[in-house]
Amino acid sequence: MAESLRIGVFSDTHVGRNIPKVLRDARRKAFRHAFKQAIDIFIENNVDYVIHAGDLFEKRSMTPDDAVFVKWEFYRLVKRIEEKSGKKIQIIAVRGNHDGSPLSNALDFITHPMAEYFQVIGEKILEGAKEAYIGDGLSIIGMGYHPYARKKFEEASEILKEIKVDGYRILILHNYVETVHNVPPQTPEHSVIKLEDLEKLDVDLVITGHHHERLGFKKTGGKLFLIPGATEAIDLGERGPFGVYILDLRESNLVAHKFVEIDPLQTISVKKVMSDKPMELDWFRKRSLEEIESFALNLDREGILKLNVSGVVAEDEPFPQLDLQEEIQKLMEKYDKLIHVEISEDLSSIIRPDVRSVEGRISRDEIVREIFGILGEKIGEAAEIVEDVAMALDEKASERTGLLKELDRRRFSDRWLRLLASYVGEEL
Questions:
Q1: Can you tell me the distance from the alpha carbon of 101 to that of 111, in angstroms, rounded to the nearest whole number?
Q2: Per-residue pLDDT, 374
Q3: Residues 343 and 375 in one domain
Q4: pLDDT, average across residues 64-93
Q5: Average pLDDT in the 123-148 region?
Q6: Where are the beta strands (DSSP E) in 94-194?
Q7: 103 lies in which domain range?
Q8: Are residues 110 and 141 in the same domain?
Q9: Are residues 338 and 383 in the same domain?
Q10: Which of 156, 310, 370, 425 shows the greatest Cβ crowding within 10 Å of its Cβ?
């Protein structure tokens, strides 16, 4: 057994992501830049292992070049450390929801029989088979992403408990865990793993991807969690800093850890313009332009600003809008480092009732139950079809139309028809 081990940990690198579309090339470069920096940090710290906790790729928009880029970066990592210290390191990953499905997994693009240093775990466990990485002083088990993670993990935990492990024991997941993560309100309950099922496992550390904002180390329910967050802002509203973790093990104990921040290619900021009393629309326009210019003045690299504007407009316009496109374009021409401004408007008129309190509080699961409540016991099957459609749209939808191809649509149409026919049959 090795006396000491050093492990590099990162997650949610989303290589190939190109959202927002108006910045597709710039954002694609930013995710590659962050990934390359992560590899540089691992080389500098002379790690023995690297763990990736899912969403290595953005499968829907990735290109063959993205797969080649990741493959060569991993190869560079392995060769540089071997040259430096003679060590043969291992890279262990689980599949995230943006990596695709078990049958169409983007991680398959970078696996190769010759690349013995890269291993994907957590897929066989979804099929009810034992699977683990057992190394010198380190054991790693995991489960790939699943939309019905609660039920799947409950089943998988029974199998995971049977795996004989040695040394420091790590579990890797790419789903939310109740009471551990700040679970978004629209997340269906069936996709969140129950803490009590996880507590049954004899592991020293649980590493979870899927949560883009870093929570670091957190002890909950007697288990130690590491939520490393993403390496780059996935959506413009997410807060940094973003980076990677370096863990030091000695004699099967975690003795030290550190977070290493990644220097982003672009500066992304979120600012607010709001008023606690009704103001003229011109006041909101003026304050918005002041915030944009203030941000642009301080840029030392490409900058992206998300501006949230909210409040009540003291005018008799029922649906007030800022209409700042022309002024923003002039500011972008004046400040060449300002490459994008996204404005989220939440303005209501003094003459129109404010309906904002309803917005964002209804989850997809609640909508399904409201619409299909008439199906009674079959509502669970309806919810499953809705979730599967969402996954298919994420993975297979046309970039141009956002729709599924006819063959894929037909598969879901047939499932709906069978479900509804069985319900009608029961009623008859």
A1: 16
A2: 74
A3: no
A4: 96
A5: 93
A6: 100-101, 104-105, 118-120, 133-134, 138-143, 168-173, 176-177, 192-193
A7: 4-261
A8: yes
A9: no
A10: 156
